[in-house]
């Protein structure tokens, strides 16, 4: 019997996906598989999307679906409708999805309904908060997946508790760290720190974009108060996410930030510039998911303005801590961090830059066994 060549559809939709698919795409091709990149266009701003393809060395996507924004239901439905003809035309042996965005669930659901196996990178992560759309995406995608690639021990524990068969689950480490390790020399050479007139370990990097923090006026005012409090201590760099920028204008808060000394408001940054700033920062304040992982690997203190995290290893082993959106509390925590009172974290197991190779090895072995 002739084994059909292995073709994998790798789906990206939003900026965090790109750092995960890049290494997997390269590892699959190195293993002799055909890797087809499908970009749903869920993040459609060039500053939020195209620049990451360039920075990460990803090829032009083989398929671009151009989905754009909308409500969760609209976006998910449009991805499903646009992805199904691609799936039919490509006829892959496997659809690989990453993370927890709407594109992740939408394409996994289409593949499962068409009886095409699904692999999920970053499987098993749970925040315990079903009010988060990402949590629902994670739960549903894992339920649909045939191969589940896990980044940390909590993922193994969660999937076992949910009844997922052990033979489907593979502890491979964190593929986002693969991108970080590969990009770090270039990131250090971008000169992003110097362009902003900053000195290494002499500033705080901040990101803020979660709807719970920026979509209503009261929490966004507290974000502004926090920025003002932190900027009184150290220079602050804040790349403005389009959602945050729009709401600052909507609630008339932009002028308050513009008048804050020591605050550098910048456009969304490419991966290399952002990584260079993150490594050189004294601390990071964020509400992101992936940044918790990157700062843990880099050993940079991170304060995450959320009540929970789907990446608990960044707290138990790494340099991350959770905090409420309270300007006084976060400023006090930053003071403690900058004083050197806090201990150093450690890098979790298998966060070593080789996760994508492990993923490719599992997929190739799975395909050989399935074909046999």
Describe this structure as you would to a colleague.
The chain has 17 helices and 13 strands. The protein is an alpha/beta fold and 372 residues long. Strands 3-2-1-4-5-6-7 form a seven-stranded parallel beta sheet, with helices on both faces. A six-stranded parallel beta sheet has the order 10-9-8-11-12-13. Helix 1 packs across helix 17 (355-371), helix 4 packs parallel to helix 5 and helix 10 runs parallel beside helix 16. The chain starts with 6 loop residues before the first strand and ends with a helix. The mean pLDDT is 93.
Walk me through the topology.
Elements: E1 7-12, H1 15-30, E2 34-39, H2 50-56, E3 63-64, H3 72-90, E4 94-98, H4 102-113, E5 118-121, H5 133-144, E6 147-150, H6 153-161, E7 169-171, H7 175-188, H8 192-195, E8 204-206, H9 211-214, H10 217-231, E9 236-239, H11 242-250, H12 254-258, E10 263-266, H13 271-280, E11 283-286, H14 290-298, E12 302-304, H15 313-316, E13 320-322, H16 327-338, H17 355-371
Helix pairs in contact: 1-7, 1-17, 3-4, 4-5, 7-13, 10-16
């Amino acid at each position: 019997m002739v084994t059909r060549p292995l073709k994998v559809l790798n789906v990206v939709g939003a900026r965090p996906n790109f750092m995960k698919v890049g290494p997997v795409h390269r590892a699959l091709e190195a293993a002799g598989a055909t890797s087809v990149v499908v970009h749903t266009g869920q993040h459609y701003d060039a500053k939020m999307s195209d620049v990451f393809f360039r920075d990460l060395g990803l090829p032009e996507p083989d398929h671009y679906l151009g989905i754009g924004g909308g409500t969760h239901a609209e976006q998910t439905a449009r991805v499903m409708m646009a992805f199904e003809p691609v799936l039919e035309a490509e006829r892959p042996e496997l659809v690989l999805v990453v993370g927890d965005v709407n594109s992740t669930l939408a394409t996994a659901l289409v593949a499962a309904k068409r009886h095409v196996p699904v692999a999920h990178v970053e499987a098993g992560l749970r925040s315990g908060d079903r009010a988060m759309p990402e949590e629902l995406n994670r739960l549903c995608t894992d339920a649909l997946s045939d191969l589940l690639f896990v980044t940390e021990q909590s993922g193994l524990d969660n999937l076992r508790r949910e009844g997922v068969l052990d033979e489907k689950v593979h502890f491979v480490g964190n593929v986002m760290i693969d991108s970080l390790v590969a990009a770090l020399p270039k990131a250090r050479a971008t000169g992003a720190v110097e362009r902003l007139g900053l000195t290494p370990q002499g500033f705080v990097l901040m990101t803020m974009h979660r709807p719970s923090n920026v979509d209503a006026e009261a929490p966004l005012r507290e974000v502004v108060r926090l920025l003002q409090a932190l900027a009184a201590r150290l220079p602050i760099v804040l790349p403005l996410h389009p959602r945050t920028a729009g709401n600052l204008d909507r609630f008339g808060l932009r002028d308050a930030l513009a008048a804050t000394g020591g605050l550098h408001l910048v456009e969304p940054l490419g991966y290399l510039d952002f990584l260079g700033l993150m490594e050189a920062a004294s601390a990071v304040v964020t509400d992101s998911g992936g940044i918790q992982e990157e700062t843990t690997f880099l050993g940079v203190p991170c304060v995450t303005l959320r009540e929970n995290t789907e990446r608990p290893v960044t707290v138990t082993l790494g340099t991350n801590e959770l905090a409420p959106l309270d300007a006084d509390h976060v400023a006090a925590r930053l003071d403690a961090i900058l004083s050197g009172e806090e201990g150093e974290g450690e890098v979790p197991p298998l966060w070593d830059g080789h996760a994508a190779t492990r993923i490719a090895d599992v997929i190739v072995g799975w395909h050989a066994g399935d074909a046999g």
